[in-house]
Amino acid sequence: MNILIVDDEELAVQGILDGVNWEQLSFDKVLTARSYEDAVGIFGNTYIDILVSDIEMPGESGLKLIAYANEHSPNTECIILSCHDEFDYAQAAVRLNCMEYVLKPIRYQKLTEILMRAKERSAQRRRTEQIQQYGQKYIDALAKESRSDSSNALDTAVQYIDSHLTDELSVRELAAICYISADHLTRLFKKKFGVSVSEYIQERRIRLAGELMRHQDMTISMVANKVGFGNYSYFTEQFKKYFGVTPREYQKKTQE
Asked: How buried is residue 66: exposed, middle or buried, by Cβ count under 10 Å (0-12/13-18/19+)?
């Protein structure tokens, strides 16, 4: 994880470099810049997880830099470190979704704590994106696996289910999509898969839950909600019925 400190005052930058507990924070790179132009150049070559910037600098301001970061690196956590306590500046920072507006001078231990929170927020953002990306890839794979003849009502229903596993699904809604009656759709599922439509949907959701727990850093409650189970106890019951172990046992086993 990388951090960029931007301030035109050399003493201010050096003070941060000397005073912050970098060993505790464990950044991969601690980069510095003295101007907007220097900072933009760094953004062009290095992914920046956390930006700490002064407001007033020669040329473009720190607010302009944060606006640039929002556009070109939207996942960067931004912190303003300034000696100005004017309301207009603070209001601008809010509009730019800055995590913190910190007034100079600040105790370095306090700044270390702020940077630790920024690092945790950045890590959580990355985990959330990975979860979403992996979940979508898995859902897309299921849909592709099921896709054979789109003109067939059963195939259409299966494709729709696998592409909308996290949505509320009903037999009536699926039947309408396939232009057949709910009873006829139920008979098709029974004949093809040996289970009802609801049981099929539940099995697919449980399979997705298992995949998420094997590959992602998610709590069991998060997984249950992600795959459409609002009731934790019911999710645990159905998960154990399918996998033979509880979600907690499964997660522990796969992590080991």
From this structure: buried
